[in-house]
Amino acid sequence: MISPEQPEENGPLNDLHEWEEDVLQRYPEPRSVKKGSLFTDPSKKKSEFRNYEQTVRDSVKEFYRLNHMNQTVDFVKQKRAQYLPLKKRRLGMWQALEHLNTLVDDSDPDTDLLQIAHAMQTAEQIRSDGHPRWFILAGLIHDLGKVLCLWGEPQWAVVGDTFPVGCKFSDRIVLPEFFQDNPDSQVPEYQTELGIYESECGLENVLMSWGHDEYIYHVTKDYLPLEALYMLRYHSFYPGHRGGAYQQLMNDQDREYFQYVKKSNPYDLYTKSSTPPDVEKLGPYYRDLIAEFFPDEIAW
Ligand SMILES: [Fe+2]
Ligand SMILES: [Fe+2]
Description:
Elements: H1 17-26, H2 46-55, H3 58-70, H4 73-83, E1 90-91, H5 93-100, H6 114-128, H7 133-141, H8 147-150, H9 212-220, H10 226-234, H11 238-241, H12 252-269, H13 279-293, E2 298-299
Antiparallel strand pairs: 1-2
The structure holds fe (ii) ion (2 copies).
């Protein structure tokens, strides 16, 4: 048993799902969803966002304030240097799922299965739609980077919509006014459309705000097809895959592979309310699936 290193106080949210509930409020399930046809909505009106701002919970607002204030170029570089050598520990994928499940919300005893349930529900829905095995696996493991929270990282450095740092913060990022307090806003070099990047340099060369997406991408990058890696790496990049922002940084590969990010996002967002999956019964299937792509242990 790995002991959690969760600090007493690591953020304003009651639990990480509070951010995801908020995302759902911003991007509600369309009434008639044609399968696989959810595209970005760059035409979303300012007034819709204003309406959102009136209803967003204080804890969520405080979470975004901290996120937007603290995600700087220096912070991202520091976290990449800390985690990306993947020297933290060695864990099997199933073990990581169980580890993540120890991330519980003390104030609500009903949430203790939420992490593994969300992972399996997402994967089961993908499976029932007949998608390839790597797609199902991506659904299962997409949130495993949240183990960062167990390793002492504050909520604002684990979840939240992601965005590039080192260039102008898009107004398509939720609650963009909070970027006023980000020290990078005072760095002229970081506040042009391209910032420190070259036009269409590819997201591979862009520093994204630090969180569970970027981390799980690096942990899994030697084992999964590129389609799945895009799903993992950019699933919280709502300003990009829903908002259509940051096109100036994307290259042909990004434009092509974002179809997979868009294809997987509805499974992440819209499968949460169904009945909880039978973790025990489904365990063997998912252990086999993991074993097909990953060795017993990998570096985290
Ligand atoms: Fe996620
Ligand atoms: Fe998720």
